[in-house]
Amino acid sequence: MNNEEVVRKATDAGVLLVTFLYCDNGGVIRGKSSHIYGLANRIDSGIGLTVAMQAMSDNDDLQPIDGMGPKGEIRLVPDPNTFTLLPYAPKRAVMMADMHTLGRKPWAACPRDFLKKQIDRAGEMGLNIQAAFEPEWSLARRDGDGFAPIDESLCFSGVGMTESMAVIDDIVVALDAQGLQVEQYYPELGHGQQELTIGHADALRAADNHIVYRETVRNIARQHDLYASFAPKPFPDQSGNGCHIHISLWDEQAERNLFYDSDGRHGLSQMGYQFIGGVLAHLRGLVALTAPSVNSYRRLIPNSWSSAFVCYGPDNREAAVRIPSGYWGNEMASANLELKPSDSSANPYLALGGLISAGLDGITNNTIPSLDLEIDVDPTTLPDGELKRRGIVNLPRSLDEAVRALEEDVTLMESLGPTLSEAYLAIRRADAKLFSENDQSFEIRRHFNKF
Question: Domains (ranges, CATH) in the chain?
Protein backbone atom coordinates (compact mmCIF):
# COMPACT_ATOMS: atom_id res chain seq x y z
CA MET A 1 0.00 0.00 0.00
CA ASN A 2 1.44 3.41 -0.95
CA ASN A 3 1.02 6.70 0.89
CA GLU A 4 -1.83 7.95 -1.29
CA GLU A 5 -3.76 4.73 -0.80
CA VAL A 6 -3.35 5.01 2.98
CA VAL A 7 -4.71 8.56 3.04
CA ARG A 8 -7.60 7.69 0.72
CA LYS A 9 -8.55 4.59 2.70
CA ALA A 10 -8.42 6.46 6.01
CA THR A 11 -10.45 9.36 4.62
CA ASP A 12 -13.08 7.11 3.05
CA ALA A 13 -13.49 5.27 6.38
CA GLY A 14 -14.04 8.50 8.32
CA VAL A 15 -10.87 8.07 10.38
CA LEU A 16 -9.87 11.06 12.51
CA LEU A 17 -6.66 9.82 14.17
CA VAL A 18 -3.99 7.44 12.89
CA THR A 19 -1.61 6.16 15.57
CA PHE A 20 2.01 5.39 14.73
CA LEU A 21 2.70 2.46 17.05
CA TYR A 22 5.99 1.15 18.37
CA CYS A 23 7.04 -1.21 21.14
CA ASP A 24 9.69 0.06 23.53
CA ASN A 25 12.58 -1.72 25.21
CA GLY A 26 10.34 -2.58 28.15
CA GLY A 27 7.75 -4.33 25.98
CA VAL A 28 5.24 -1.49 26.34
CA ILE A 29 3.22 -0.61 23.24
CA ARG A 30 3.35 3.15 22.77
CA GLY A 31 2.64 5.60 19.98
CA LYS A 32 1.67 9.04 18.77
CA SER A 33 -1.30 9.92 16.57
CA SER A 34 -1.65 12.12 13.52
CA HIS A 35 -4.91 13.82 12.64
CA ILE A 36 -6.20 12.83 9.23
CA TYR A 37 -5.60 16.33 7.85
CA GLY A 38 -1.87 16.09 8.42
CA LEU A 39 -1.49 12.40 7.62
CA ALA A 40 -0.12 12.77 4.08
CA ASN A 41 2.82 14.82 5.34
CA ARG A 42 3.33 12.76 8.50
CA ILE A 43 3.71 9.52 6.57
CA ASP A 44 6.79 10.98 4.91
CA SER A 45 8.16 13.18 7.69
CA GLY A 46 7.16 11.03 10.65
CA ILE A 47 6.23 12.26 14.12
CA GLY A 48 8.88 13.57 16.47
CA LEU A 49 9.87 11.51 19.50
CA THR A 50 12.45 12.21 22.16
CA VAL A 51 15.38 9.79 22.17
CA ALA A 52 14.75 9.38 25.90
CA MET A 53 11.78 7.08 25.29
CA GLN A 54 14.07 4.13 24.58
CA ALA A 55 15.69 4.66 27.98
CA MET A 56 12.50 4.62 30.07
CA SER A 57 12.19 1.93 32.74
CA ASP A 58 9.03 0.20 33.96
CA ASN A 59 8.32 3.21 36.17
CA ASP A 60 8.94 5.68 33.31
CA ASP A 61 12.18 6.65 35.03
CA LEU A 62 14.80 7.85 32.57
CA GLN A 63 17.96 5.73 32.76
CA PRO A 64 21.37 7.42 32.44
CA ILE A 65 22.35 6.31 28.94
CA ASP A 66 24.61 8.37 26.70
CA GLY A 67 22.67 9.87 23.81
CA MET A 68 19.25 9.16 25.32
CA GLY A 69 18.66 12.14 27.56
CA PRO A 70 16.58 15.31 27.28
CA LYS A 71 18.46 16.48 24.18
CA GLY A 72 17.88 14.71 20.91
CA GLU A 73 15.02 13.61 18.71
CA ILE A 74 14.11 10.86 16.30
CA ARG A 75 11.13 10.35 14.03
CA LEU A 76 8.45 7.68 14.18
CA VAL A 77 8.11 6.84 10.49
CA PRO A 78 5.11 4.61 9.70
CA ASP A 79 5.18 1.60 7.41
CA PRO A 80 2.27 2.13 4.96
CA ASN A 81 2.00 -1.63 4.41
CA THR A 82 0.84 -2.00 8.02
CA PHE A 83 -2.08 0.45 7.80
CA THR A 84 -5.02 -1.04 9.67
CA LEU A 85 -8.51 0.28 10.35
CA LEU A 86 -9.62 -0.51 13.89
CA PRO A 87 -13.02 -2.24 13.89
CA TYR A 88 -13.40 -1.63 17.63
CA ALA A 89 -12.64 2.12 17.22
CA PRO A 90 -14.21 3.29 13.92
CA LYS A 91 -12.60 6.75 14.01
CA ARG A 92 -9.10 5.32 14.52
CA ALA A 93 -6.44 3.48 12.52
CA VAL A 94 -2.87 2.37 13.22
CA MET A 95 0.43 1.84 11.44
CA MET A 96 3.57 0.23 12.82
CA ALA A 97 6.44 2.70 12.98
CA ASP A 98 10.19 2.50 12.56
CA MET A 99 12.53 4.83 14.44
CA HIS A 100 14.64 7.03 12.15
CA THR A 101 17.34 9.57 12.89
CA LEU A 102 16.95 13.13 11.66
CA GLY A 103 19.33 12.09 8.91
CA ARG A 104 16.60 9.73 7.62
CA LYS A 105 18.47 6.57 8.58
CA PRO A 106 17.28 3.74 10.85
CA TRP A 107 18.11 4.53 14.48
CA ALA A 108 20.43 2.00 16.09
CA ALA A 109 18.04 1.65 19.07
CA CYS A 110 15.00 0.72 16.94
CA PRO A 111 13.71 -2.78 17.84
CA ARG A 112 11.80 -3.17 14.58
CA ASP A 113 14.93 -2.41 12.59
CA PHE A 114 16.83 -4.98 14.68
CA LEU A 115 14.39 -7.65 13.50
CA LYS A 116 14.71 -6.42 9.91
CA LYS A 117 18.48 -6.85 10.09
CA GLN A 118 18.14 -10.45 11.25
CA ILE A 119 15.65 -11.11 8.44
CA ASP A 120 18.15 -9.62 5.98
CA ARG A 121 20.90 -11.88 7.37
CA ALA A 122 18.68 -14.87 6.73
CA GLY A 123 17.92 -13.58 3.24
CA GLU A 124 21.63 -13.40 2.46
CA MET A 125 21.76 -17.11 3.33
CA GLY A 126 18.87 -17.82 0.94
CA LEU A 127 16.38 -18.26 3.77
CA ASN A 128 12.82 -17.00 4.15
CA ILE A 129 11.52 -16.95 7.72
CA GLN A 130 7.96 -17.77 8.71
CA ALA A 131 6.85 -17.26 12.31
CA ALA A 132 3.85 -17.05 14.59
CA PHE A 133 3.36 -15.88 18.16
CA GLU A 134 1.09 -18.07 20.30
CA PRO A 135 -0.10 -15.90 23.20
CA GLU A 136 -2.02 -16.87 26.30
CA TRP A 137 -3.80 -14.21 28.32
CA SER A 138 -6.05 -13.81 31.33
CA LEU A 139 -9.56 -12.42 31.21
CA ALA A 140 -10.62 -10.76 34.45
CA ARG A 141 -13.11 -8.54 36.24
CA ARG A 142 -12.49 -5.78 38.74
CA ASP A 143 -12.44 -7.08 42.30
CA GLY A 144 -12.06 -4.26 44.80
CA ASP A 145 -8.60 -2.78 44.30
CA GLY A 146 -7.48 -5.74 42.21
CA PHE A 147 -8.70 -8.22 39.62
CA ALA A 148 -10.30 -11.67 39.67
CA PRO A 149 -10.46 -14.23 36.82
CA ILE A 150 -13.66 -14.19 34.82
CA ASP A 151 -14.33 -17.83 35.73
CA GLU A 152 -12.95 -20.92 37.44
CA SER A 153 -13.50 -23.27 34.53
CA LEU A 154 -11.23 -26.16 33.58
CA CYS A 155 -8.84 -26.45 30.65
CA PHE A 156 -10.63 -26.63 27.25
CA SER A 157 -13.99 -26.79 29.04
CA GLY A 158 -17.28 -25.90 27.42
CA VAL A 159 -18.20 -23.91 30.54
CA GLY A 160 -15.20 -21.66 29.95
CA MET A 161 -16.12 -21.19 26.31
CA THR A 162 -19.65 -20.18 27.27
CA GLU A 163 -18.52 -17.73 29.95
CA SER A 164 -16.25 -15.82 27.58
CA MET A 165 -18.24 -16.31 24.38
CA ALA A 166 -19.38 -12.73 23.83
CA VAL A 167 -15.96 -11.12 24.21
CA ILE A 168 -14.13 -13.88 22.32
CA ASP A 169 -16.53 -13.67 19.38
CA ASP A 170 -15.97 -9.91 19.13
CA ILE A 171 -12.20 -10.41 19.29
CA VAL A 172 -12.31 -13.01 16.51
CA VAL A 173 -14.36 -10.70 14.29
CA ALA A 174 -11.98 -7.81 14.95
CA LEU A 175 -8.83 -9.83 14.31
CA ASP A 176 -10.27 -11.18 11.08
CA ALA A 177 -11.18 -7.65 9.96
CA GLN A 178 -7.56 -6.61 10.51
CA GLY A 179 -6.18 -9.45 8.41
CA LEU A 180 -5.08 -11.77 11.22
CA GLN A 181 -5.99 -15.38 10.48
CA VAL A 182 -7.50 -16.97 13.57
CA GLU A 183 -6.73 -20.70 13.73
CA GLN A 184 -7.94 -22.07 17.07
CA TYR A 185 -9.56 -20.95 20.32
CA TYR A 186 -9.86 -22.64 23.71
CA PRO A 187 -9.89 -21.81 27.41
CA GLU A 188 -6.53 -22.72 28.93
CA LEU A 189 -5.51 -24.32 32.22
CA GLY A 190 -5.62 -21.24 34.47
CA HIS A 191 -8.81 -19.63 35.73
CA GLY A 192 -9.94 -17.11 33.13
CA GLN A 193 -7.00 -18.03 30.89
CA GLN A 194 -7.57 -17.87 27.13
CA GLU A 195 -5.67 -18.96 24.04
CA LEU A 196 -6.61 -17.79 20.58
CA THR A 197 -3.98 -18.65 17.99
CA ILE A 198 -3.02 -16.81 14.80
CA GLY A 199 -1.61 -18.28 11.59
CA HIS A 200 2.03 -17.86 10.65
CA ALA A 201 3.33 -15.05 8.46
CA ASP A 202 6.66 -13.70 7.31
CA ALA A 203 8.78 -12.74 10.31
CA LEU A 204 8.23 -8.97 10.28
CA ARG A 205 4.51 -9.34 9.72
CA ALA A 206 4.32 -11.91 12.53
CA ALA A 207 5.81 -9.43 15.01
CA ASP A 208 3.56 -6.64 13.74
CA ASN A 209 0.59 -8.99 14.08
CA HIS A 210 1.40 -9.58 17.73
CA ILE A 211 1.23 -5.83 18.42
CA VAL A 212 -2.15 -5.67 16.67
CA TYR A 213 -3.30 -8.74 18.60
CA ARG A 214 -2.40 -7.35 22.02
CA GLU A 215 -4.07 -4.02 21.28
CA THR A 216 -7.21 -5.68 19.94
CA VAL A 217 -7.69 -8.07 22.84
CA ARG A 218 -7.21 -5.45 25.53
CA ASN A 219 -9.45 -2.87 23.86
CA ILE A 220 -12.33 -5.23 23.17
CA ALA A 221 -12.14 -6.66 26.69
CA ARG A 222 -12.62 -3.15 28.06
CA GLN A 223 -15.66 -2.66 25.84
CA HIS A 224 -17.16 -5.66 27.64
CA ASP A 225 -16.27 -4.14 31.02
CA LEU A 226 -13.54 -6.77 31.39
CA TYR A 227 -9.76 -6.65 31.60
CA ALA A 228 -7.31 -8.72 29.57
CA SER A 229 -3.74 -9.14 30.76
CA PHE A 230 -0.84 -10.75 28.93
CA ALA A 231 1.35 -10.60 32.05
CA PRO A 232 3.35 -13.84 32.48
CA LYS A 233 1.93 -14.51 35.96
CA PRO A 234 -1.02 -12.21 36.69
CA PHE A 235 -2.46 -14.58 39.31
CA PRO A 236 0.20 -16.24 41.50
CA ASP A 237 -1.88 -19.36 42.15
CA GLN A 238 -2.77 -19.97 38.49
CA SER A 239 -0.93 -21.12 35.37
CA GLY A 240 1.21 -18.47 33.75
CA ASN A 241 0.70 -16.84 30.36
CA GLY A 242 3.27 -17.79 27.76
CA CYS A 243 3.71 -16.54 24.24
CA HIS A 244 5.43 -19.40 22.47
CA ILE A 245 7.21 -18.53 19.22
CA HIS A 246 6.82 -20.90 16.28
CA ILE A 247 9.40 -20.58 13.51
CA SER A 248 10.33 -22.30 10.26
CA LEU A 249 12.85 -21.57 7.51
CA TRP A 250 11.90 -21.78 3.84
CA ASP A 251 13.69 -21.38 0.52
CA GLU A 252 13.84 -17.96 -1.13
CA GLN A 253 10.61 -18.56 -3.04
CA ALA A 254 8.86 -19.68 0.18
CA GLU A 255 7.89 -22.92 -1.57
CA ARG A 256 9.92 -25.50 0.37
CA ASN A 257 10.15 -25.80 4.14
CA LEU A 258 13.84 -26.33 4.89
CA PHE A 259 13.09 -27.67 8.37
CA TYR A 260 11.32 -30.68 6.89
CA ASP A 261 12.99 -33.99 6.05
CA SER A 262 10.76 -37.04 5.76
CA ASP A 263 13.78 -39.24 6.49
CA GLY A 264 15.09 -37.11 9.35
CA ARG A 265 14.71 -37.92 13.04
CA HIS A 266 11.25 -36.66 14.06
CA GLY A 267 10.82 -35.42 10.47
CA LEU A 268 13.33 -32.62 11.03
CA SER A 269 16.16 -31.71 8.66
CA GLN A 270 19.81 -31.16 9.51
CA MET A 271 19.19 -27.43 9.20
CA GLY A 272 16.42 -27.75 11.74
CA TYR A 273 18.79 -29.40 14.19
CA GLN A 274 21.45 -26.77 13.50
CA PHE A 275 18.88 -24.11 14.35
CA ILE A 276 18.01 -25.91 17.58
CA GLY A 277 21.70 -26.17 18.41
CA GLY A 278 22.17 -22.43 18.01
CA VAL A 279 19.12 -21.63 20.11
CA LEU A 280 20.19 -23.93 22.94
CA ALA A 281 23.75 -22.56 22.85
CA HIS A 282 22.44 -19.03 23.39
CA LEU A 283 19.25 -19.77 25.32
CA ARG A 284 20.31 -18.56 28.75
CA GLY A 285 21.01 -15.11 27.30
CA LEU A 286 18.15 -15.25 24.81
CA VAL A 287 15.51 -15.50 27.54
CA ALA A 288 16.46 -11.96 28.60
CA LEU A 289 14.83 -10.98 25.29
CA THR A 290 11.98 -13.52 25.18
CA ALA A 291 11.04 -13.63 28.89
CA PRO A 292 12.32 -10.23 29.97
CA SER A 293 10.25 -9.18 32.98
CA VAL A 294 10.62 -9.93 36.67
CA ASN A 295 7.20 -11.56 36.46
CA SER A 296 8.44 -13.93 33.73
CA TYR A 297 10.46 -15.94 36.22
CA ARG A 298 7.41 -16.83 38.31
CA ARG A 299 6.30 -18.76 35.22
CA LEU A 300 9.60 -20.39 34.16
CA ILE A 301 9.67 -23.01 36.88
CA PRO A 302 9.81 -26.83 36.75
CA ASN A 303 6.60 -28.84 36.27
CA SER A 304 4.75 -25.88 34.77
CA TRP A 305 4.83 -26.82 31.06
CA SER A 306 6.69 -23.58 30.38
CA SER A 307 10.23 -25.07 30.37
CA ALA A 308 12.90 -24.58 33.02
CA PHE A 309 15.87 -26.37 31.45
CA VAL A 310 18.05 -25.99 28.35
CA CYS A 311 16.87 -29.01 26.36
CA TYR A 312 14.73 -29.99 23.38
CA GLY A 313 12.37 -32.79 22.48
CA PRO A 314 9.63 -34.07 20.17
CA ASP A 315 6.20 -32.98 21.39
CA ASN A 316 7.63 -32.39 24.87
CA ARG A 317 5.98 -29.38 26.45
CA GLU A 318 8.52 -29.29 29.27
CA ALA A 319 11.38 -28.84 26.77
CA ALA A 320 12.60 -25.34 25.97
CA VAL A 321 12.50 -26.13 22.24
CA ARG A 322 9.69 -28.42 21.13
CA ILE A 323 9.64 -30.26 17.81
CA PRO A 324 5.90 -30.36 17.05
CA SER A 325 4.56 -33.33 15.13
CA GLY A 326 3.40 -32.46 11.62
CA TYR A 327 -0.21 -32.42 10.49
CA TRP A 328 -1.40 -35.44 8.50
CA GLY A 329 -1.14 -34.81 4.77
CA ASN A 330 0.57 -31.47 5.39
CA GLU A 331 3.83 -32.60 6.99
CA MET A 332 6.16 -30.42 4.93
CA ALA A 333 4.28 -27.16 5.37
CA SER A 334 3.60 -27.69 9.07
CA ALA A 335 7.17 -28.54 10.15
CA ASN A 336 8.36 -25.94 12.65
CA LEU A 337 10.10 -25.39 15.97
CA GLU A 338 8.46 -23.94 19.07
CA LEU A 339 10.31 -21.84 21.64
CA LYS A 340 8.60 -22.29 25.01
CA PRO A 341 10.37 -19.83 27.39
CA SER A 342 8.79 -16.75 25.86
CA ASP A 343 5.95 -14.47 26.95
CA SER A 344 4.16 -11.28 25.99
CA SER A 345 6.15 -9.05 28.32
CA ALA A 346 8.73 -9.25 25.52
CA ASN A 347 9.11 -6.79 22.69
CA PRO A 348 8.19 -9.11 19.78
CA TYR A 349 10.78 -7.56 17.47
CA LEU A 350 13.57 -8.17 19.97
CA ALA A 351 12.32 -11.64 20.92
CA LEU A 352 11.97 -12.90 17.36
CA GLY A 353 15.12 -11.11 16.20
CA GLY A 354 17.10 -12.68 19.02
CA LEU A 355 15.69 -16.13 18.22
CA ILE A 356 16.68 -15.74 14.57
CA SER A 357 20.17 -14.54 15.50
CA ALA A 358 20.74 -17.55 17.75
CA GLY A 359 19.37 -20.03 15.21
CA LEU A 360 21.36 -18.62 12.29
CA ASP A 361 24.50 -18.85 14.41
CA GLY A 362 23.77 -22.55 14.81
CA ILE A 363 23.38 -22.98 11.05
CA THR A 364 26.56 -21.04 10.29
CA ASN A 365 28.62 -23.04 12.77
CA ASN A 366 26.90 -26.41 12.18
CA THR A 367 25.92 -26.62 15.85
CA ILE A 368 24.17 -29.98 16.05
CA PRO A 369 22.71 -30.44 19.54
CA SER A 370 23.82 -33.44 21.54
CA LEU A 371 21.37 -36.33 21.82
CA ASP A 372 21.89 -35.98 25.57
CA LEU A 373 19.93 -32.71 25.35
CA GLU A 374 16.99 -34.43 23.64
CA ILE A 375 14.46 -35.40 26.25
CA ASP A 376 11.07 -37.08 26.07
CA VAL A 377 10.02 -36.80 29.72
CA ASP A 378 9.66 -34.10 32.35
CA PRO A 379 13.32 -33.31 33.17
CA THR A 380 12.59 -33.31 36.89
CA THR A 381 11.61 -36.99 36.74
CA LEU A 382 15.09 -38.11 35.68
CA PRO A 383 17.20 -39.97 38.26
CA ASP A 384 19.49 -37.97 40.53
CA GLY A 385 22.56 -36.81 38.65
CA GLU A 386 21.12 -37.55 35.20
CA LEU A 387 20.62 -33.88 34.25
CA LYS A 388 24.22 -33.10 35.15
CA ARG A 389 25.51 -36.16 33.29
CA ARG A 390 23.64 -35.08 30.17
CA GLY A 391 24.76 -31.46 30.46
CA ILE A 392 21.21 -30.17 30.85
CA VAL A 393 21.38 -26.90 32.78
CA ASN A 394 18.72 -24.67 34.30
CA LEU A 395 17.33 -21.64 32.57
CA PRO A 396 17.99 -18.43 34.52
CA ARG A 397 15.93 -18.30 37.71
CA SER A 398 15.60 -14.50 37.74
CA LEU A 399 15.73 -11.48 35.47
CA ASP A 400 19.07 -10.47 36.98
CA GLU A 401 20.55 -13.85 36.05
CA ALA A 402 19.14 -13.66 32.51
CA VAL A 403 20.50 -10.15 31.99
CA ARG A 404 23.98 -11.28 33.06
CA ALA A 405 23.77 -14.20 30.63
CA LEU A 406 22.75 -11.88 27.79
CA GLU A 407 25.59 -9.49 28.55
CA GLU A 408 28.05 -12.40 28.38
CA ASP A 409 26.65 -13.71 25.06
CA VAL A 410 28.93 -12.26 22.39
CA THR A 411 26.75 -13.33 19.46
CA LEU A 412 23.53 -11.79 20.76
CA MET A 413 25.25 -8.63 21.96
CA GLU A 414 26.89 -8.11 18.57
CA SER A 415 23.55 -8.67 16.84
CA LEU A 416 21.85 -6.08 19.05
CA GLY A 417 24.68 -3.60 18.61
CA PRO A 418 26.09 -1.30 21.29
CA THR A 419 23.35 1.36 21.23
CA LEU A 420 20.38 -0.99 21.54
CA SER A 421 22.08 -3.43 23.93
CA GLU A 422 23.23 -0.70 26.33
CA ALA A 423 19.74 0.79 26.57
CA TYR A 424 18.07 -2.59 26.86
CA LEU A 425 20.34 -3.90 29.61
CA ALA A 426 20.02 -0.67 31.59
CA ILE A 427 16.23 -0.82 31.49
CA ARG A 428 16.09 -4.46 32.52
CA ARG A 429 18.47 -3.87 35.41
CA ALA A 430 16.34 -0.92 36.54
CA ASP A 431 13.21 -3.09 36.41
CA ALA A 432 14.88 -5.84 38.44
CA LYS A 433 15.93 -3.29 41.06
CA LEU A 434 12.48 -1.65 41.21
CA PHE A 435 10.65 -4.90 41.89
CA SER A 436 13.26 -6.18 44.34
CA GLU A 437 12.47 -3.13 46.47
CA ASN A 438 8.70 -3.77 46.49
CA ASP A 439 6.44 -6.66 47.47
CA GLN A 440 4.77 -9.25 45.27
CA SER A 441 1.44 -7.44 45.18
CA PHE A 442 3.16 -4.39 43.66
CA GLU A 443 4.77 -6.60 41.02
CA ILE A 444 1.52 -8.36 40.16
CA ARG A 445 -0.45 -5.12 39.94
CA ARG A 446 2.13 -3.36 37.76
CA HIS A 447 2.57 -6.26 35.36
CA PHE A 448 -1.18 -6.86 35.09
CA ASN A 449 -1.74 -3.28 33.96
CA LYS A 450 1.43 -2.91 31.89
CA PHE A 451 0.80 -5.94 29.72
Answer: 3-107 (3.10.20.70), 117-134+236-450 (3.30.590.10)
